[in-house]
Task: inverse folding
């Protein structure tokens, strides 16, 4: 039987639970159907959440740990690069505007550096991993 989109269910409750249920349901503005519907919905929602958490929680925890390590590593890499750049800029004097040979040599070294980085990235080789194997 259906009333206004609702389906009738028959259920059995232990005496103590039934007495508590009737005491709360006897208050004004509280219907037994609404009370049971909210209770069943809350139970099902909790059940769904705990199943999802059990199923995906460990994976999400591993992904979070991996992302935390990636963020930490990127901070280390950026700090290393910044310190290296500061050091290089501190020990090398700027070239004079008229020093075209020095600028050409610097550009050639820079192109060599970029090509080396491109080769390393393309090969999948990591310089620090190679240094660890020595």
Result:
């Amino acid at each position: 039987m259906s009333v206004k989109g609702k389906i009738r269910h028959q259920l059995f409750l232990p005496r103590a639970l039934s007495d508590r249920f009737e005491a709360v349901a006897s208050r004004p503005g509280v219907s037994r159907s609404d009370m049971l519907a909210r209770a069943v919905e809350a139970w099902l929602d909790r059940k769904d959440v705990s199943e999802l958490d059990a199923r995906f929680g460990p994976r999400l925890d591993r992904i979070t740990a991996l992302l935390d390590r990636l963020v930490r590593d990127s901070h280390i890499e950026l700090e290393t690069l910044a310190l290296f750049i500061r050091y290089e800029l501190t020990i090398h004097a700027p070239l004079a505007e008229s020093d075209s040979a020095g600028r050409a040599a610097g550009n050639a070294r820079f192109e060599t550096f970029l090509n080396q980085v491109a080769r390393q990235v393309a090969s999948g080789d990591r310089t620090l991993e190679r240094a660890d194997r020595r």
Observations:
- Residues 49 and 55 are 10 Å apart (CA to CA).
